[in-house]
Amino acid sequence: MMTKQDLEAIENQISTIQVSSHGETVNPVLAHGGFKTVENGRNWGWLLSGFISLNILLLGIAIVSGTVFNKIQITSSHLLIFLILLVILTTLWMVYYKIHTSRVYQAVLYKDSHAGPVWLRGLVINVSSVYMIYYVGRIHCESPVKIAFPAVQALFVIVQTYVLWVHAKDCVQIQQIITRCGLMLTLSTNLVVWMMAVTEESLHQTVSIALTHSVVFLSGRAGASECECSHNMCDVFEKVYYYLYPFNIEYSLFASAMAYVMWKNVGRQMDDHHSHNVRFSLWDVLIGPIAGLIILVAGLATFVMYEVDVAKEEPKKKEEALIIHYIMNIVAILLMSITTLIGCIIFRIDKRDQVSGKNPTRSLDVGLLVGSSLGQFLICYFTIVAVLASGVLGHINGLNLANSILTVIQLCLQNAFLIKGLHREPFKEPETATVFANVMAVRERDPERRSSSIVPAHTLPIPLTLLQGRLSWKRRILKEICAFLLLCNVILWIMPAFGARPQFDNTVGSNIYEFQTWAAVVNIGMPFGIFYRMHSVASLFEVCLTS
């Protein structure tokens, strides 16, 4: 009698049998020298591409750090030259992949139905043209590299968006080493671009706040530029770039995520035929969107008030703005924690199966959620220690402490809810239904069914969609929760992404840790926190669809 392991080995061998171009059955295990050769090639591809990515990222970190803390030897022009080389190499590889690799016969035999979700492919905001026009007005006194880089980046974004949109689901079977190295090059390039954008924005925010608080901040870019613009639109384009900045950094991170999923799918010989056609209807939910919209509108109103009052630089106005900001956040986070807890309880009693098999997209989603949430955990725990060390003096510090503690609880609950939701199989709608209603009318129309009291749904004049229109109470509550949490995460993304920095306006952190240490904590944790909220919105939308 064969064991379970023997049966699995035979099944795997049968599943790898393919048909050659001459119509003969070919076993790739035998044709290519066995699994050992295939495995060795795969390991070499992973190793080489990993080394390429590691070296590019470490070199990028070194150059970015050098431009921040050294103004003379390493300038921003050196960083931009490095980025231009990376962007050009990545663009050339993507063009090669599109016109050659993807068109080779049997290059892509399989597709990953979970890769390249719509929310990720749809976030395409190109701010390079805005930044290029901004620097055109300073061409007489700025380096030409600062104009060339936005132009090259614009071409890179267009090519990358097209390639990822069309080929995100590919499981490439040929030229695997070259493809893996190209995808790691793409991932690393996007991460270096993201690091540069985040560093510049964080430095801009920190220097502005340091000047407000009369703090000396040592940086190679701290000084104001002496180059004046030659046209009147520079200020306008600078403000436009400021408001589009959050979308720019999210695009780079999402593109990196898609490149990683494609890298994991290289050589993958499994076609997922179990994709589900999920639908979204506004009629499925009501209370969640309404409550979420209320929180969203209230958050926008308090955010505008906060920005206006803080800009006045009046101590009393700033205190009032901080109090309103903390109260708004506490209310939103408290409601989110309660609804998320209810969702976790529903998942606990839910009988749906867990998603089986390896899924690079789902694994990446969970990794990004947990990893990016560490940024907010970092800021919250530093804030808790600072407030407790200061003695929790005044209403502002009390609200700050409550806000930080509730944020930690909400992050834990939301991560648990999303991880459970992303790993559940979608609800399956029955294709037919059995109805014990209007039996006499059907008997009159169909004599063959006069002896039966059970009538299939397709024999009734009532559309089947009406019979299936009502969702079960678990499905409806889950959809309401997802819709509410989605809108709440949107407002929690908008406020820090567009300039709210209560960590600096409330001086308790800078007083306890000193300004430069506190600035480093905030500038490291804030970009990850912003990405966490955006990624949570996308994950909540997917959980809502599968519910």
Automatic annotation (TrEMBL):
<feature type="transmembrane region" description="Helical">
    <location>
        <begin position="77"/>
        <end position="97"/>
    </location>
</feature>
<feature type="transmembrane region" description="Helical">
    <location>
        <begin position="44"/>
        <end position="65"/>
    </location>
</feature>
<dbReference type="GO" id="GO:0005886">
    <property type="term" value="C:plasma membrane"/>
</dbReference>
<keyword id="KW-0813">Transport</keyword>
<feature type="transmembrane region" description="Helical">
    <location>
        <begin position="368"/>
        <end position="389"/>
    </location>
</feature>
<keyword id="KW-1003">Cell membrane</keyword>
<feature type="transmembrane region" description="Helical">
    <location>
        <begin position="515"/>
        <end position="532"/>
    </location>
</feature>
<feature type="transmembrane region" description="Helical">
    <location>
        <begin position="118"/>
        <end position="135"/>
    </location>
</feature>
<dbReference type="InterPro" id="IPR004878">
    <property type="entry name" value="Otopetrin"/>
</dbReference>
<keyword id="KW-1133">Transmembrane helix</keyword>
<keyword id="KW-0375">Hydrogen ion transport</keyword>
<keyword id="KW-0472">Membrane</keyword>
<feature type="transmembrane region" description="Helical">
    <location>
        <begin position="147"/>
        <end position="165"/>
    </location>
</feature>
<comment type="similarity">
    <text>Belongs to the otopetrin family.</text>
</comment>
<keyword id="KW-0406">Ion transport</keyword>
<protein>
    <submittedName>
        <fullName>Otopetrin 2</fullName>
    </submittedName>
</protein>
<feature type="transmembrane region" description="Helical">
    <location>
        <begin position="326"/>
        <end position="347"/>
    </location>
</feature>
<feature type="transmembrane region" description="Helical">
    <location>
        <begin position="282"/>
        <end position="306"/>
    </location>
</feature>
<feature type="transmembrane region" description="Helical">
    <location>
        <begin position="477"/>
        <end position="495"/>
    </location>
</feature>
<keyword id="KW-0812">Transmembrane</keyword>
<feature type="transmembrane region" description="Helical">
    <location>
        <begin position="240"/>
        <end position="261"/>
    </location>
</feature>
<dbReference type="GO" id="GO:0015252">
    <property type="term" value="F:proton channel activity"/>
</dbReference>
<dbReference type="Pfam" id="PF03189">
    <property type="entry name" value="Otopetrin"/>
</dbReference>
<keyword id="KW-0407">Ion channel</keyword>
